[in-house]
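Here is the promised in-class demo. Please do not try to memorize the tokens; focus on the logic of going from shape to residues.
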């Protein structure tokens, strides 16, 4: 037996405009939960995906729902038990303009929340992929199985920097980056390995040693 609510369509984007919501969404575990809610899933189904006991996730689901970051879209009765299915409320979550303005009194705290969430999520992904054997550290590992970490500096004129930005965006579009909250076309994903990246490219106030 299935009891469904009105069909829900996620918004194109969810704008985060306060520190409390930012803290909720920036938690690495809650980011992981949202990633798996591009399609309706239960707490138990998500728990299986991220290898956590369902009891460890109820608090986080409640918090995400309270801040409208996820939504319960329908229930299903299985063996007399009501299963709630949740979905992300948007395909993209982004910060409101000015949320990270340096003059803001909460600037430092907001920046720390964002960086901790992003790097924490990436760290967890790397750890899980290593344990699963997806990443290969062997000497003869093929390029598509390796972990690539790079930190450096490039000196560019404004025109060359603009060119880099544009070419990078073109390359990402060419290879078809999928946002974590977007449903994946199974016909396009079949037989392919997902790859994760976190790109930080910005003008720096640091001078490298010469």
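The designed amino acids, position by position:
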């Amino acid at each position: 037996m299935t009891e469904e609510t009105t069909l829900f369509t996620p918004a194109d984007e969810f704008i985060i405009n306060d520190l409390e919501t930012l803290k909720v969404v920036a938690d690495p575990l809650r980011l992981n939960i949202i990633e798996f809610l591009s399609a309706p899933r239960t707490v138990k189904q998500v728990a299986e995906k991220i290898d956590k006991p369902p009891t460890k996730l109820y608090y986080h689901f409640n918090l995400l729902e309270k801040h409208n970051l996820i939504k319960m879209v329908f229930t299903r009765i299985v063996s007399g038990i009501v299963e709630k299915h949740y979905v992300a409320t948007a395909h993209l979550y982004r910060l409101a303009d000015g949320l990270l303005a340096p003059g803001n009194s909460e600037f430092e705290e907001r920046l720390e929340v964002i960086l901790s969430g992003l790097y924490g999520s990436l760290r967890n992904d790397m750890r899980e992929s290593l344990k699963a054997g997806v990443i290969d550290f062997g000497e003869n590992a093929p390029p598509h199985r390796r972990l690539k970490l790079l930190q450096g500096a490039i000196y560019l004129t404004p025109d060359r920097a603009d060119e880099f930005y544009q070419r990078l965006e073109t390359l990402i579009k060419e290879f078809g980056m999928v946002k974590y909250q977007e449903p994946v076309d199974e016909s396009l994903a079949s037989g392919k390995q997902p790859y994760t990246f976190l790109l930080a490219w910005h003008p720096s106030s640091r001078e490298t040693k010469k």
